[in-house]
Structures are given as structure tokens and as C-alpha cells.
């Protein structure tokens, strides 16, 4: 205990006053207190306790542990008694922190308010990054967002102050960059209400994307459940060089594993090649691991992380992490469930898409593939930045290419946008001249926010339905995601390749071999990008954008206007009535890919994320109905008329008719948004029956009292017709590992039964019986 207290004292000293970053302005001393709380007894596991837990588990299992296992098992609620079996058992864990972006924080905080608890039990933060629409440029767009979203920002700021949550104001930056700069550290376990929370794995933490109800559990101090992850090892050899970037590692891995190959697993990078990747480069790789369905991704503690911690004012963490270094790297001889080998010296630049992030192509081949496939070759817009690729290094390497073009008198042929990851990045690249170079070559610097990456883009250069190509350094490229145009062919790649293609204006340009033509007629070849990993001077923190929770908050009021169309207090869902669910209608039988974007679209719908009834008007409006191959057109089986999916769902609910959704593979992939689970529950849904689920969505459905069920025989998907009635039988004896039965009643009077599997454990079955996890929490208070 003495050494633990000494560790805390050293970290309090470092994070309170000693680190350079925290004396720049008053805001940083406030941030320091939040960062410091990570290490206070009672609010964090701490390295000493984690070390004890790891030793207990290692003795129990009698085998070497992977890094992922060390951090996860190091946060166990009961390391002595917890059953541990990768891929099977559920773990009860105590994460160190919670982070929420503003779109999901609304529902998370509404749920926390409903819990009746006075304060959060662990350090938590809210980050305003999702509600800023890209339209004119950073300054104008930020001011417009503050005016349009004043009610929501005020709610989040006051709720944060009331319940002890830190609040990062609009303009501060993207949640994942802020976490990397301030809160992530080797060995941390952090959960965030955004699917790209794994970004923090670049700093050696286990950072996992979850729904808001999971965040409420952790903020309430309740052990958080996670199915014991399998571990996929990616062994890196060789060295990154030339045009190849960290982004190419995950683009390659996505091509190998596909969008569901990482489901239920943590991807753990290791091997000698790791040391050739910067800390922010490692974060890029972990960030986009969400696109392969991975629980999270992580890198081992190394000198790159030390340098980043020191440069961001957290040098004292390094000295403590060094003491526990053996807990922050994998044991020699540890075993992975699967191993992928990648030689970085042989890895070529990649570009993935369109319409899915796992369709991988070498950049050298994309022109020919696009021509053969009928994809538009002209690049209309190149977009760099986002939470995946907006580091100082990313911006510097892109600027090095832009500078070469400017030196030849050339500008981008395509439109070009730049999204800084944080206020700190914006201020630093402005100070160091990168922002000017990128602007001079034709770039528009957008606000420090998510922007086009999540569909917050008021795009006007093409009409909806017009085929066109965009290239981005984002992480996700589902149909219509960026600009609401289903005909936009979006490709994801590195910022360097985006910049090169924006300069050339065509997908057929290979910067490794091809030449550009300057206005003078001179042909020239771009030299490989270069850029500093971190600024030679300290980071410029920029403007003060942080609100520390006050010590006393009893007088703070959190008001929700009953007539608001943006915010709405939650009404508890009804409890299970103790009977089987009989004669339910099929609301929609979904054909093919159905992501959370299809289930609950983002873009203009983001403004309703705090109002469950209003946002439910987007339920499944992007899903394809197998009956007619149409979007948002399903038959109302009570009237015989066709209508929008939300409208038919509301009609069924109003007439006391329960309904189910039938889906295909990897249902619910993509974002962590729990609205994709809240909306079907709110509109009368009872079960979602599919071939298989994406991890976060399956958990979110359970949390809201729905039944996520899978076909024991995937071919049974074909047995269900859109006009069937379905009964779920066996709920009175609902138990872990025991399948349920679906009785399908066809319109011709015939019936057939099929077996449905589930992954509920005892605790989750109690959620179902209570009507939701939140209801169950209240029952136990």
C-alpha cells in the first residue's frame, strides 16, 4: 500500500503542477485534476491493484498471458472467483473511466438521471464533437452549431456539472483525440459511447466502445459485463517507409478479416515492426479496428508511447508505467486464438471501398479496378482528418505533399477539406504553418469536430442520386454515410493518399509511379511524404474549452422543457408479462447489410438524439425490404397498405400488436449508437432475429429489454415470409445456453418451428424480465 500511495502522490504532483502542459493556462490545471482522479484510490484500479489481479489470474490459469488479458483481467471485480474462458464466459469488470460524445451523451445522461443517483462513481467526461455540421469553414460552422444546438449544449453542460462529469465544449475537438491527449495511458480500461473508442489502444489501453446503458452501469459503480474476448494476434515485422502509412496496416487487416472477422475478439499487435509506428499511428490502427467488429485493439507499451506521454505533459506517468512495464506487454510464449503476419517493409499503400471498409485494394490497382467496375474515376472531394487520422504527424505528412505541389504552382483538382482532431492540433498546425499550406493548396479547414465523417456535411457540389467518388482518411464508408447520397462512392485511405488523389483529381493516379502536370506544363513526381511525429516545440493548447465539474453542485438545475423537440425525459419500458410472445408481426425482413446507419441514421437526425420519440421516426428507414427491394416501404399487415417503417411500427404499437425484425449477417455493425436498440423497443418491437450480430448492437438490444436471437440454422432465414406471424416459445424457462423456439405461422395456414439461439446470461435475463437494464438497476437500489 505504501508504494501505491507513493505512486499516487507522484502522479498528483506531476499532473497537478509539475507537467509543462498544465501551467500554460488555467484550464490545464483543471484538466490535471480530472486526469489525476484516474489514480485516486476508490476511483481507479491503479497499477498496483492491476498487478495483484494479474498475478492472481496467472496463477489460476497456469499459463502466459497476452497483453489484452493482463489489462482486462487486471480490472476484474473478482479475480479469485471469476470464471475465465475466452469466447464463452462473461467477465465482471471495473473500468477506470467513461467518455461520451455529445450525440450519445444525451441519452446516456437522461438514463443516468433516471437512475436517481447523485454523482458518477468514476471519472467521466462529455465531448461536444458530433453536432457541428461542415458547411462554410471552421469558425462559421462552430458558431452556427452553438446557436442551433444551444438547448442541447446547455443540457449537457448543466447535467455534467450536476453529476460530476467533465465537459469539453464545442470546438474542443473529437472525443478520441481528446482522450489520447489527456486521459488514455498504458493499462487503462476506458469505455466510451462511441464505436471508435479503441483509438486509445494506441497508447496501450483497453478502450472499448459501448452503448449509453453500459456507460450508465459504470458511472453508477456497478461491475460492467463483457463476454471474455478471444485474442487475435497481429505480428508486425519490417519497417514502414515511403508512401506506406499506419493506416495501410488496418486497411490490410480489414481486407483479411472482413467487417465481422474480429467480432468477439481483441486485436493485439506485437512484434518488432511495432517500434516503427508512432503512437498516433498506432491509435489510427486501433481506431479503425472497429470496422472489423473487434471488441478493441491494443499495442504494447514502448518508447513511442513514452515520447507521446512526455510531449502531452504526462511525463510522470512514464516513470510509473516503467515500474510496471511487464504488466503492459504480452508474456513471452502467450497464445493467440489466431495470428496474422504482416511485413511492413512489403506492405503497399491501400485504399478500401466503396460502400464497405473491408473491400481492400492496393492503390496501384484501384484505377483499373474502378474502370472495370464502373466506379467514377474522377475524385470530386478529398477529405483528410477525422478521429482516425488527424494527428500532428498526419497533417505534417499531408502538408509535405501540398508544399511540393505549391512549389510547382499547382493546387488540388478536387475539392479538399481538412478536419483537425482537436483544438490543440488546430492551434499547433496553425502555429507551425501546416494549416496555411493546406489552405493554399485549396483546402478548407473545418471545425475541430466529426463533420463529414459522420454525415455532418452540407454538401452541395453534386445532386442526390448523382454517381460520384470521394476519398477520405476516415474509418467508415457505408452507403450514404458521409453525404446522405447513396450514389456517392466513398473510399477510405491514408491522409497522404487522399492528398495525392485530390491533387491529381482521379482514382487512376498512383503517386509511387505516376507524374503530375504543373500549370507550366512541367511534369513532376511527388516525393514520398514526410513529417515530424510530434512538434519540435510543445503543443499549443489553443483556446480554453474545458469545464471542470464544480465541487458543490446542489444548486445546479437540469431542466428539460416538456415542449422541446430536441430533449425528452425517459419513461421506463414495460416489464415482461411472464408469457411467451405470440403472434408477432414481421415489421421488416431485411435484405443484406444492415448497419446501425441503416437502423438509426445519423446526419440530420443527430439533432434528435436526446428525444426518443422524435428520433424513432428514422427507425430502419435505410434498410432494404426483401419483399420489394425498396427502402422505407413495408406492408402494414393490418391494413394491407404500404408505408414507412416507423409509421407501420407506430400503427402496430397503437393497436397492441408486437412485432419482430428479421435480419441477415452481422446485423448492427458500425456505430455504438444505442438508439438503434432504443427505437425498436420504443415502437413496440420485442425481438430481432438474425443470422448473427455485431457485438455492441447485440448488447444494446439486451440492455433495452429486447430479445436478440440468432437462427440455429442460418438457412431458416429463408423460411420466414414478410406476412408471417411469429411466436417465441420457451420464455417461461428462459435460461443461459437453452435455445428458444420460434413458431412461424404462414398465411396459408401452415406452421413450422425453428430453433433460435441466444447469448443471454443470468444477469441479462433479469434485464429482459425487468423490461430493461435500467429498470433492473432501480429494482436493486
Automatic annotation (TrEMBL):
Record note on cofactor: Binds 1 [4Fe-4S] cluster per subunit.
Necessary cofactors: [4Fe-4S] cluster
Domain Aconitase/3-isopropylmalate dehydratase large subunit alpha/beta/alpha per the UniProt entry, residue ranges: 69-505
Region entry Disordered, spans: 518-559
EC number of this enzyme: 4.2.1.3
Catalytic activity: citrate = D-threo-isocitrate
Presence of keyword Iron-sulfur: yes
Top-level lineage group: Eukaryota
Regions annotated as coiled coil: none
Keyword entries, A-Z: 4Fe-4S, Iron, Iron-sulfur, Lyase, Metal-binding, Mitochondrion, Transit peptide, Tricarboxylic acid cycle
Main location: mitochondrion
Keyword Metal-binding applies: yes
Role, per record: Catalyzes the isomerization of citrate to isocitrate via cis-aconitate.
Family, as annotated: Belongs to the aconitase/IPM isomerase family.
Name of the featured protein: Aconitate hydratase, mitochondrial
Amino acid at each position: 500500500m505504501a508504494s501505491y500511495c507513493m505512486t499516487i502522490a507522484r502522479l498528483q504532483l506531476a499532473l497537478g503542477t509539475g507537467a509543462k502542459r498544465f501551467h500554460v493556462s488555467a484550464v490545464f490545471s483543471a484538466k490535471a485534476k480530472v486526469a489525476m482522479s484516474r489514480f485516486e484510490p476508490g476511483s481507479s484500479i491503479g497499477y498496483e491493484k492491476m498487478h495483484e489481479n494479474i498475478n492472481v489470474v496467472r496463477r489460476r490459469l497456469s499459463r502466459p498471458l497476452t497483453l489484452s488479458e493482463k489489462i482486462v483481467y487486471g480490472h476484474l471485480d473478482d479475480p479469485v472467483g471469476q470464471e475465465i474462458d475466452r469466447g464463452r464466459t462473461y467477465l465482471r469488470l471495473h473500468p477506470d473511466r467513461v467518455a461520451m460524445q455529445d450525440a450519445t451523451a444525451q441519452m446516456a445522461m437522461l438514463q443516468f438521471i433516471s437512475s436517481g443517483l447523485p454523482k458518477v462513481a468514476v471519472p467521466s467526461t462529455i465531448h461536444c464533437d458530433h453536432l457541428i455540421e461542415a458547411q462554410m469553414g471552421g469558425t462559421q460552422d462552430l458558431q452556427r452549431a452553438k446557436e442551433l444546438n444551444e438547448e442541447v449544449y446547455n443540457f449537457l453542460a448543466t447535467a455534467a456539472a450536476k453529476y460530476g462529469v467533465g465537459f469539453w465544449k464545442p470546438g474542443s475537438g473529437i472525443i478520441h483525440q481528446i482522450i489520447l491527449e489527456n486521459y488514455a495511458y498504458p493499462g487503462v480500461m476506458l469505455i466510451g459511447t462511441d464505436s471508435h473508442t479503441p483509438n486509445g489502444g494506441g497508447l496501450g489501453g483497453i478502450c472499448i466502445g459501448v452503448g449509453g446503458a453500459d456507460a450508465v452501469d459504470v458511472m453508477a459503480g456497478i461491475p460492467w459485463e463483457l463476454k471474455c474476448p478471444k485474442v487475435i494476434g497481429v505480428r508486425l515485422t519490417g519497417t514502414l517507409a515511403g508512401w506506406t502509412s499506419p493506416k495501410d496496416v488496418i486497411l490490410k487487416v480489414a481486407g483479411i478479416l472482413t467487417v465481422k472477422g474480429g467480432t468477439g475478439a481483441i486485436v493485439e499487435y506485437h512484434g518488432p515492426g511495432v517500434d516503427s509506428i508512432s503512437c498516433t499511428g498506432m491509435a489510427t490502427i486501433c481506431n479503425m479496428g472497429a470496422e472489423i467488429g473487434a471488441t478493441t485493439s491494443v499495442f504494447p507499451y514502448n518508447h513511442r508511447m513514452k515520447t507521446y506521454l512526455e510531449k502531452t505533459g504526462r511525463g510522470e506517468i512514464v516513470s510509473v508505467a516503467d515500474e510496471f512495464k511487464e504488466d503492459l506487454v504480452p508474456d513471452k510464449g502467450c497464445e493467440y486464438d489466431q495470428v496474422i503476419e504482416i511485413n511492413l517493409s512489403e506492405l503497399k499503400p491501400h485504399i478500401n471501398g466503396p460502400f464497405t471498409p473491408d473491400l481492400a485494394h492496393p492503390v496501384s490497382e484501384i484505377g483499373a479496378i474502378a474502370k472495370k467496375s464502373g466506379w467514377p474515376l474522377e475524385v470530386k472531394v478529398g477529405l483528410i482528418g477525422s478521429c482516425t487520422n488527424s494527428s500532428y504527424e498526419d497533417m505534417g505528412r499531408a502538408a509535405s505533399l501540398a508544399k511540393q505541389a505549391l512549389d510547382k504552382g499547382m493546387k488540388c483538382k478536387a475539392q479538399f477539406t481538412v478536419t483537425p482532431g482537436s483544438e490543440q492540433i488546430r492551434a499547433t498546425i496553425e502555429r507551425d504553418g501546416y494549416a496555411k499550406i493546406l489552405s493554399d493548396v485549396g483546402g478548407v479547414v473545418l471545425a475541430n469536430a466529426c463533420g463529414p465523417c459522420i454525415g455532418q456535411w452540407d454538401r452541395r457540389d453534386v445532386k442526390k442520386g448523382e454517381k460520384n467518388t470521394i476519398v477520405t482518411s476516415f474509418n467508415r464508408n457505408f452507403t450514404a454515410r458521409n453525404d446522405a447520397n447513396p450514389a456517392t462512392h466513398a473510399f477510405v485511405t491514408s491522409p497522404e493518399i487522399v492528398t495525392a488523389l485530390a491533387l491529381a483529381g482521379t482514382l487512376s493516379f498512383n503517386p509511387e509511379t505516376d507524374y503530375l502536370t504543373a500549370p507550366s506544363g512541367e511534369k513532376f513526381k511527388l516525393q514520398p511524404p514526410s513529417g515530424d511525429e510530434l512538434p519540435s516545440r510543445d503543443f499549443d493548447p489553443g483556446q480554453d474549452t474545458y469545464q471542470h465539474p464544480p465541487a458543490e453542485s446542489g444548486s445546479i438545475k437540469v431542466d428539460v422543457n416538456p415542449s422541446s423537440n430536441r430533449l425528452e425525459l425517459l419513461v421506463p419500458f414495460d416489464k415482461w408479462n411472464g408469457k411467451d410472445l405470440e403472434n408477432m408481426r414481421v415489421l421488416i425482413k431485411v435484405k443484406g447489410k444492415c448497419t446501425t446507419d441503416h437502423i438509426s441514421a445519423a446526419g440530420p437526425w443527430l439533432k434528435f438524439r436526446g428525444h426518443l420519440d422524435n428520433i424513432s421516426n428514422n427507425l430502419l428507414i435505410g434498410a432494404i425490404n426483401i419483399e420489394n427491394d425498396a427502402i422505407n416501404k413495408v406492408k402494414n399487415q393490418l391494413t394491407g397498405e404500404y408505408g414507412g417503417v416507423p409509421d407501420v411500427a407506430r400503427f402496430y404499437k397503437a393497436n397492441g400488436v408486437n412485432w419482430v425484425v428479421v435480419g441477415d449477417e452481422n446485423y448492427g455493425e458500425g456505430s455504438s449508437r444505442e438508439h438503434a436498440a432504443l427505437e425498436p423497443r420504443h415502437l413496440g418491437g420485442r425481438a430481432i432475429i438474425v443470422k448473427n450480430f455485431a457485438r455492441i448492437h447485440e448488447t444494446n438490444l439486451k440492455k433495452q429489454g429486447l430479445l436478440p436471437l440468432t437462427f440455429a440454422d442460418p438457412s431458416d432465414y429463408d423460411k420466414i415470409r414478410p406476412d408471417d406471424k411469429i411466436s417465441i416459445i420457451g420464455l417461461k424457462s428462459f435460461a443461459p445456453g437453452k435455445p428458444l423456439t420460434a413458431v412461424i405461422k404462414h398465411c396459408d395456414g401452415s406452421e413450422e418451428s425453428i430453433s433460435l439461439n441466444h447469448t443471454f446470461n443470468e444477469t441479462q435475463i433479469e434485464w429482459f424480465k425487468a423490461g430493461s437494464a435500467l429498470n433492473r438497476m432501480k429494482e436493486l437500489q
